[in-house]
Amino acid sequence: MKIDPQNPADLSVQIAQAIRDAIVSGALIVDERLPSEAELAQQFEVSRPTVREALKRLAAQSLIRTQRGATGGAFVNRISYQDSYSQQITTSTLLLSMNAVSFETACEARYALERACAALSAHRRTADHLATMRAEIHRQGQPGLSDESFCDSDVAFHRALVDGAGNPVLSYQLAGAVEAMQPLMNMITFTARSRAEIISMHTRIADALETRDCDGVEDALTDLESYTRDLARGVMEERAKHRG
Q: Selecting from 1.25.40.10, 2.60.120.10, 3.40.50.300, 1.10.10.10, what CATH number does the domain 11-76 have?
């Protein structure tokens, strides 16, 4: 592991990147103990506080964990998909907001990805996934439910559909699509949409999953996408009139 002292980038950032690269390449394996701070400082020819800052960066990314005691130190962490969801969602949310991704682009990506899960979810969904979806449909129909709570329930419903595919890689990749993109779409369309329409389409999806009808799931998702796009188009046209 090496760094470039002439590189203008912060030395702690370079050290963290070098260790990260070693972990990704397999040069450092899960549960392996990293050299001590003193050893790393000597290896990289930097101060111990610089090494300490690099280790903090790695710990914040869940790449390493620290243990105290005689057998303690910094160890390569085993990252779980569950632990990585929040980072994926945060990254996706920032990418959408910072790059001004259009509603149309976000909507297209989100439903294309979710439809990719439809067949797998139709075959693999469990009773628990169906129960979660039915519970969220019931929740969405409750009188007095706030817009924020309805949006949260919407996300939970679609996460159950995605998780029903039984593929942790897909669930991880779609965490950003569902939990970052859907709130963006909800924010634009919630004032215009009919909860009854949403509940009806959610019920169609759950019914199709229950009978393992993958075509039915895909058709319902396509209809939901069309409904969402039409709502957004109407909202944006109305806003343009007011601005004009």
A: 1.10.10.10
- CATH number attached to the domain at 81-243: 1.20.120.530
pLDDT confidence band for 141 (50 / 70 / 90) = very high
In this prediction, residue 9 carries a pLDDT of 67
- Give the chain as a DSSP string: ----TTSSS-HHHHHHHHHHHHHHHTSS-TTPBPPPHHHHHHHHTS-HHHHHHHHHHHHHTTSEEEE-STT-EEEE----HHHHHHHHHHHHHHHHHHTT--HHHHHHHHHHHHHHHHHHHHHH--HHHHHHHHHHHHHHTSTT--HHHHHHHHHHHHHHHHHTT--HHHHHHHHHIIIIIHHHHHHHHTTT--HHHHHHHHHHHHHHHHTT-HHHHHHHHHHHHHHHHHHHHHHHHHHHHHH-
Break the chain into its structural domains and give their ranges. 11-76, 81-243
pLDDT in tens, 43-71: 998 999 999 999 999 998 888 988 887 77
Q: How confident is the model at residue 6 (pLDDT cuts 50, 70, 90)?
A: low
